[in-house]
Amino acid sequence: MQATDFKTLLNYIEKCNTAHLHKDFLPFRANDQIIGWVKPEFINTLYQYGIFKADDQINTLPPTISLESLGQKIIQDKLVQTMHELFDVYPSPHAKPIGQIDRAVLPSLGFIGTGVHLNGLVKDGDDTYLWVAKRSPHKRLDPGKLDHIVAGGIPAGHTHQSALAKEAEEEANIPHQLIIQAQYTSMVTYSMIRPEGLRRDVLYCYDLWLPQDFIPTPNDGEVVGFELMKIEDVYRRVCDTNDFKFNINLVLIDLFLRLGVISAKSANAQMLKIGLRGKLFP
Fold this sequence. Notes:
This is Thiamin pyrophosphokinase. The chain is an alpha+beta fold.
């Protein structure tokens, strides 16, 4: 790995870890747990919906108000545009959900968002290839960027395994008998400031070795097409351009380390590996 490549890859990670929770945000509590981090200027708006400052000065959702109804009020007042999809609300990655809320509201309240990403890999002799998708130009977030063959948020009521199967069929027409062979490999986490708000994301990463004769096809309009690229060319595309969606770069760095495209033994590689588990909490 060249020094310039390392600098670029580390920069991708740093750009996904721009949030300073204690410095720039206030904790938000529900069900006796800190579940979110909110911009101070947005707290006054939340007071209008019944949020109150408890004796310990932590902004708290009263038990008489559900998370889902709070999200509905925020959307009804046109503070956020609905995404018509509920997500589970998790205090931490391995905790049980304590409620549900419209996906679009997660960044405004600094709640953890979960997603699943699939590396669709193909082996041809000694060469390894990766299926790369191009996002629709009509996507609300990151239109036209390069993406994984399958990637998406985890809707309420789904595990990352069931969400992967759902997304695989919807986005790339990957049949059930293939997707059940996908192997969970790692978790990527980060906290960052985005135009839509505070993203505290947990990405569950999978690898799937696909047959050479399998051709993915767009199914739900999320992407406009797929391209099979040699893994070394994907690496150069990541290092030399900004073509991939921001968090795809992180999942690909994880893949490069796992496949040996980046030697995992160097000190720089260890820095990248540590950086892929960014802080979700102060």
